Amino acid sequence: MTYNLLKFAHILGAILMGAGLVGVWMADLRSRQLRDLSRFAEAVRNIAVFYDGLVVPGALLLLASGSWMIGGFYGGWAFLDIPWLTGMVVLFVAEFIEGNTVTRLYFMKLRRLTHQALAEGRFTRELEAERGKLVPSFTHFLDLPMLTLIIALGALKPDSWSLFLAGSAIAIVVASLLTYCIPRLYPWGAEEPSG
């Protein structure tokens, strides 16, 4: 019974996190199209709502339920002998660290700079420079492919490292392509300002 409850909590955490990341993705794409400062600020606020309201609680639920299942049902450190489980843990830890040190901090800074721009009544040079940074864009575009790989490892449970390695390479290529293509498809402020 405990295992089933933990598994349910784990699935719920993945759903919350996935929904939040999709919401962040959509709000970010929308923000890239806007030159109207108040609408841009709303898109940036939506990013924060999805991160703080869905991604963070989902990640914490995944962390708690996953740790409990590994400790109680997979022999603690013995999980290192199970490729699919080790892969899930490695990717989750990497994404958890990256998400809280690069991506989330970037969006928090973007929100702070947006508040400053609203106070000045115009897009500031600092805000425009921050919006154009490539590393946070890459890590943001890496989130969904990595979550997909984590879920694939848990669903398919491969007994080798091939899915982990191939999936990681594909996720990095996809994130690289998105980092290159999205700014060209959605150039900063492509929408005409509203009059």
Automatic annotation (TrEMBL):
Q: Does the keyword Signal apply?
A: no
Report TM segments: 6-27, 48-70, 82-107, 134-155, 161-182
InterPro entries listed in its UniProt record: DUF2269_transmembrane
Answer whether the UniProt record assigns the keyword Membrane to this protein. Answer: yes
Which keywords appear in this protein's UniProt record, sorted alphabetically? Answer: Membrane, Transmembrane, Transmembrane helix
Pfam families in the record, alphabetically?
A: DUF2269
Q: Where is the signal peptide?
A: none
Q: What is this protein called?
A: Integral membrane protein
